[in-house]
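Trying the structure run again after the queue cleared.
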Amino acid sequence: METRPKYGTMPELTEKVFQKQVIELAEALGWRTYHPFLSKWSEKGYPDLTCVHARQKRICFIELKRESGKVSPHQQEWHNLLIAAGQEAYIFRPSQFDQIEQTLKGGAK
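Done. Tokens:
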């Protein structure tokens, strides 16, 4: 028996697809993005994306989560440390795409 989503619902966006969308948006807006190829050798909890915009003189760190994804204690710790150090750090979900765009355009810090 084939299972299909209920009428009017969409399957949850994967983090990989969401990340690709955010990277494409950031680069279209003039950001240089970095994402480790294989995060298993990176520091636990380090944000998914490091983004730099020279004209805006900004650097920001972005953790991306599926709509239902949970922030790990290590991810929350990195987020809190970056904020305490005066950096722009964000945790975004697909439903916040408009906010992501506004943030990358410089409208929200």
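The chain has a mean pLDDT of 88. Worth checking whether this holds up in the mutant runs.
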